[in-house]
Request: fold
Amino acid sequence: MLKIIIFRVILLIILPLLQAKKVQVIELTKWSLRDSDSVIAAQPIDVAKIPSGVYTELAKTSGDLLGPNNDVALRWIANKTWIYSTSFDMADELGHDSLVNLTFHGIDTVAKIWLNGNLLGETDNMFVRYSYVVGHLLQASPKHNVLEIEIISPLMEANARAKQLEEKGIGAPPSCPQSSGDVECHRNMLRKMQMSFGGDWNPAALSSGLWKPVTIEYYTVAVLREVDVAINRNDTHWTMDCRAFINTPDSESFYAQLVVYASDLFNEPFVVQQKKLSYTSPNMEFQIHIPKEKVKLWWPNGYGAQKLYPVSFNLKSYRSEDGPSLSSRTDSQKLLNIGFRTIDLVEDEDEIGRTFYFRVNGHPIFMKGVNFVPAHTLPELSADAEALQHLLKSAQEANMNMIRVWGGGLYESDTFYSLADSYGLLVWQDMAFTKATYPVTDELMNSMRIEAAQNAQRLAHHASLAMIVTNNEIELYLVKNRSDFGSEAMRLEDEYKLLFRGILAPELNIISRNDFKPRPGPMVSTPSMGIVESGKELAKDPQSPHCGDVHLYEDETPSQNAYPEARFISEFGFISLPMRSSWLRVLGQNATEDKLAALIRQRQHHPRGFIPLFRQIAYELPFNLQNWEENIDEFIYFSQVSQAMATKKAVELFRSRRDNYLTMGALIWQLNDVWVAPSWSSIDFYGNYKLVHVWAKEFLASPSIIALYHELSNHINITITREDFREDRDTIFYNLFINTYLWNDIYPKTAIARAIGLGSNALDKLNIPLESVLYEKTTKEEIFLEILLKDQQENIVAHNYFYPVPIKNIVGLRNPELQLEVLRSDCGTGKPYVNSFSLRITVKYPALFIFLELNNPNYVEMRHSFSMNGFTQTVPRQNVQLEIDTDSECIELNPDDISVKTMNQYMV
Reply:
């Protein structure tokens, strides 16, 4: 009986919420595009969908921006003003109490908006949502409403703003990006994706367009925009500390009710009773307490499951205390997926300085991850769900647990953060400011405030959001160049402190709490001395290895001696070239070796050209540096092997320093790429894995074997690390095997075995004299080690090779006499087909760094992956799986469709 009474009470509360209509949201999807003087597009170009950009719409007639030399040849597009136009009818049901918003979720970038001939407003920030009340300007049927967005040339606007500052005697360095490529200047004049102006790895692509949806919203009083859900816990309960952010154009107070549904968390809807809200700050704050036993934790990848709970927030807003009228559009909804976890950044004093590590659910975690750049250089194409899923799934499968969204790119799409939630990838989020000073006019600072608040509100509920940092490398830039700035240095530093410490960091408090911290930060800059050590003045050494995070680019000497014992490495990486098939895909059918060499040369944007890559290769490998144009395949192969070797060695060194929290994070620069070019990426523009990404699945795995050579003592330092979480912190027993091989024999000559036990999140170290693993009278140039970790069931759970000398110095390598067979599994009798192949590789002698590449032109553009690549083979027969991601046909392959390289062929 009591349950029936309670149900009736709840029903009486909720019933008014069920009577009125939902806010109606209509996307405007059909547009046309023309240049402002109608020289290029005499007839408007039909725009098939939004998001849209000018480069994208002109691709069919003028060429793909990412085609050979088109980043320069199509630069005229950025020098023109473009106009998007559409027309729409007003909703028939619009009543006397209805409001209408025209909302632009993302305009790139400086624009004027006209509705029925009236100037509605102007935009100057692509990261801001602009919303205008337009009911009084709409025309009823049969008249149509005409909407035009005039997007000003970003190149001309940036140059004009820079000139205005110069005329006032104000500088805002740097003028231009550091790059040997054809880049553009004054990127810091616009609140636009900063990499659009070009850089040392990417093209200049000054986009313009409607890069996010344009919507018409019909409603009565207010719209629920975002809900921030901060998670906290005590001994008995979890708390969802909620803030509902509501938009209204009204200039008087109104009433609101809110109901929360989450059947997995609470049996009855949670009801926030009617409240009177002020139009000046129309937000609702409330807490929902949930018994701990009803909740399963969300964990980063590798430490547990990523449990997410769907939670629906339903708002009704109205003007009368008596409630909404039956026909009013008062109901706004937000459906969020909430993960329950705690996260903090531990910066405790120690004998070196301060620790810098993330602790999730009370558990210290070594961050193994990567830096992320936009999935496409054109913002309107950057949110492609399939591309994002491939990239983030690839990071997860490579045993990564953190992804840093770099400050030269974007605040990523909702799809990106939802995927990060699902895959257990913690997000280190830079705000979109990078390595430059920024003008601090009142108008620009107000726009930046809105940018910070809107994006923080949108992202805050995600379990994956670990920390927000207000800029990338600006503090380091100011400190390193202080003497070059001369008398301007003080002004530039004061403006920096005003903008990032005085305005943007406090603006992010909109997602903070007074009684607990939902997440660390905000941190002001990266690299930095951390949060605790950040004072009112700029750090004397933002790259201090004793606290905070560092960015490392020792591209000339990728050895373990090149790196200081830093606390957290948030950027480090090495360069390579994409595979041949990716280059040929850019060139198309008329590809020649000369055109290929020219394209590689044109897309090398590093200020020092190929010198860092040559030195990286020469450190380990026997590559002839003088004539790469005549040996492009060799150049590609050696670049990818050297990138993989250098990255692996660096990651292993950082992971070996995990004890006592000495080093607790390593984020590789960079996961992905925006075009086919020499770069630091581990996955190329078309989604193909470079060798470093294939290797990462092993060198980032848990458990893992790390073997580093200590030259002074002539010892091998071996670390066995286990990075996971178990409630009981149980010890798992393993057997470690060290096999010594000669380069001229497929079978091991000696073996050492040792039993070890590892608890949850533990590591073990042993120090072995190199001479103890030499075979008879051999030298270290003649041998290499295979190190295996087996569990009690004799399963290999970790595997590594150790090469005592640089590869170019080894002695005794022979022709492995490699043979390849291609065996396919049954692809089925009809669609969908399964295209899976087993590549059987047989050798008579050790084969070093076997590199496989699909070369059949009919299939090379299909996404595919090898289960192993770039591997050393020390068994007579090895099977490698090739998966081709297409189900529309049953593919047949033969050995000629697979290119095979080994290091042996260049050394024997």
